[in-house]
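G., the chain you wanted modeled:
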Amino acid sequence: MARTKEFDPDAALQSALELFWRRGYEATSMADLVAHLGIGKASLYATFGSKHELYLRALERYEQSGLAPIVHELSRPGPALPAVRALVRRYAREAADERLRLQGCMVTNTAAELAPHDPAAARRVERNWDQLETLLHSALVRARGQGELPADRDPLAVARTLLVLMQGLRVVGKASADPARVRDAAEQALTLLD
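Predicted structure as tokens:
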């Protein structure tokens, strides 16, 4: 007869996500995970595989929870540019927020820490950025079609610019205690939409 799990894998994954997000991949050991999750090492390996597999699953959960509200915001009917502006400003606000900025974005953190030497992590980061770029591009195509975005603006180029800016806001916000730096950059980038 198979033993039932003595812990909730979903809750454990969420807890692992929070630890990885706060500390990063390299700074989080298996011993840290065992202590933080309150799960035996053997159970952790049996359920999630290696530390790397657990990290990738945690990153995937982070991506899904982060993209869902963006899909909702950018795909609502009606004018599209207010939603795009609000999204960029939200990234700037979060990057400048004293409580949030030091933790940063798990995708951006992964891009800086793992993507240069970890192909699986790099694929996850690229997939996330592709999805965000596609959402922005679709909203900007709609905005141009509705006459909100000037006809001479390339929706794909603007979407890519905003994507790079938004990721940069996360990095600069994490490293800089000057909130004006990220707010000013965001506002300047939004002039592309005028």
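The two ends are 66 Å apart (CA to CA).

Shout if anything looks off.
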